[in-house]
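Appendix B: complex inputs.
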Amino acid sequence: MFGLGGTEVGILAVLAVPGIVGATIAGRRGRLRFSWFILSTVFPFAILILLFLPPTRPVKGRYKTCAFCAEIIRHQATVCKHCGRDQPAI
Ligand SMILES: [Zn+2]
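Resulting structure:
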């Protein structure tokens, strides 16, 4: 027997689901997709940790950098949650 049969491909597909979910969430939160794909595939519970981690960099349309304190805040924010200063209109 050489190559992958239907059962093996099915098992790999099921294992990849948490990885794809983790990579998608990571991308939306400005984190490294590939690292979170591997981590979520091996440890699916890592997705729960990812949901509570703050974003690490600006993501267009989701997170931006505060013009005053340089912390990452939500794109729609009108006041920075870190320094409390009003944000310039988008
Ligand atoms: Zn700020």
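The longest strand covers residues 63-65.
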